[in-house]
Amino acid sequence: MARKALITGVTGQDGSYLAEFLLKKGYEVHGIKRRASSFNTQRVDHIFQDPHEVQPRFFLHYGDLTDTSNLTRIMAEVRPDEVYNLGAQSHVAVSFEAPEYTADVDGLGALRLLEAIRFLGLEGVTRFYQASSSELYGLVRETPQTERTPFHPRSPYAAAKLYAYWITVNYREAYGLFACNGILFNHESPRRGETFVTRKITRGLANIAQGVGSCLYLGNLDALRDWGHARDYVRMQWLMLQCDEPDDYVIATGEQHSVRQFLAWTAEELGITLEFRGSGVDEIAVAASVEGDLAPAVRPGDVVMRVDPKYFRPAEVASLLGDAFKAHQRLGWRPETGLREMIAEMVAADLRCARQHALLKHHGLGQPVPAGGR
Ligand code: NDP
Ligand code: GDR
């Protein structure tokens, strides 16, 4: 019998990589997707299996983390060996605008799943993974951050994730559930949502390079992050549930860079050398030189980025840097993809899209490409 996994957030960045990973391992994979007025399964369409054509091992169920009866019913039907709770309103800036919804989905959503496991008597059957976050550290008390670093959340998102973290620990201690927290630092990929800063930059600059996008507007360029590749991080999510004992693990690269550096390296990938002028809200990035043929629409002297204070957050997390020593020591995990390599992969993917837009525009068929919002 194939092992069964249930993934919330299967249509998101991590959910799609994890589903691929588990299918390759021979799992039967069940994912929860939200009802939307248009298609929202682009990230998993390539692994969808038409039940009319093959004996499928990948199933999608309509559901929502705010809906207890729906989650309990899916859990009862699937009786999964492993649950990966990746579903979330995952945007930190948006959580300031929708704090109650974020608390409901990101905080209580975890509780609803844990309670469903308990209510159905699956404690001895089902292992649980909670997608915890380096945002828990917030106002950091020590660098680098480890599993023992105290938390100080700085957003409604992080406060909701703090509840989910502790309720996961609580169900492990109180009911003996095999429940783990992965405290994951930022991880990105070509499948990253378009409004997170890395993808906003790779997509925005690729569009400018091909003449289908205008100036990029960003917020805090001084923010420091520890960026890894999502593909490497989902492997660790699975590894945690294969251990003899449940535990919590930091997953990070141990390297830290600024948003400004990420922008400069992305430009370099396109043959553009950037010069940063001004400071604070007046800072701009100018194309100092352009080489090669990847950015035909950019001329030296063009302003490609301006700071817009609208993207500053009410409370910022200035600096995050993780120490994944425990994951390395106990589970043999190390990230395999370096940041420059990941930027190259993201730029290549966004450049392909930008070129398609440019071609359509050339034939008078193009729609304007919206710049990434938040
Ligand atoms: P994404 O934003 O790409 O994916 C989030 C997923 O959750 C999507 O499938 C989304 O559905 C789904 N979702 C949102 N609201 C609900 C809801 N009410 N009910 C059910 N599903 C819902 O996030 P990532 O893949 O990047 O992250 C996965 C998890 O890991 C999240 O919990 C995130 O908070 C956490 N995390 C992420 C990190 C990162 O750097 N990527 C780092 C640390 C933690 P839809 O597609 O319909 O929007
Ligand atoms: P983060 O990721 O908040 O760390 O949360 P994000 O990419 O949104 O921001 C990283 C840093 O970049 C700064 N920044 C901008 N951010 C966005 N989104 N848009 C901008 O224009 C911009 N300009 C500068 C931000 O202020 C911030 O400091 C991500 C999410 O995936 C969470 O779900 C996850 O828990 C954490 O990573 C770890």
From TrEMBL:
Residue intervals of the NAD(P)-binding domain: 6-346
Documented EC number(s): 4.2.1.47
Protein name per UniProt: GDP-mannose 4,6-dehydratase
Known catalytic reactions: GDP-alpha-D-mannose = GDP-4-dehydro-alpha-D-rhamnose + H2O
Cross-referenced PANTHER family: GDP-MANNOSE 4,6 DEHYDRATASE, GDP-MANNOSE 4,6-DEHYDRATASE
Enzyme class, UniProt record, top EC level: lyase
Keywords, comma-separated and alphabetical: Lyase, NADP, Nodulation
Family matches, as InterPro entries: GDP_Man_deHydtase, NAD(P)-bd_dom, NAD(P)-bd_dom_sf
CDD domains: GDP_MD_SDR_e
Record-linked Pfam families: GDP_Man_Dehyd (PF16363)
Required co-factors: NADP(+)
Annotated source species: Paracoccus denitrificans (strain Pd 1222)
Family, as annotated: Belongs to the NAD(P)-dependent epimerase/dehydratase family. GDP-mannose 4,6-dehydratase subfamily.
Gene3D superfamilies, A to Z: NAD(P)-binding Rossmann-like Domain (3.40.50.720), UDP-galactose 4-epimerase, domain 1 (3.90.25.10)
Task of the protein: Catalyzes the conversion of GDP-D-mannose to GDP-4-dehydro-6-deoxy-D-mannose.
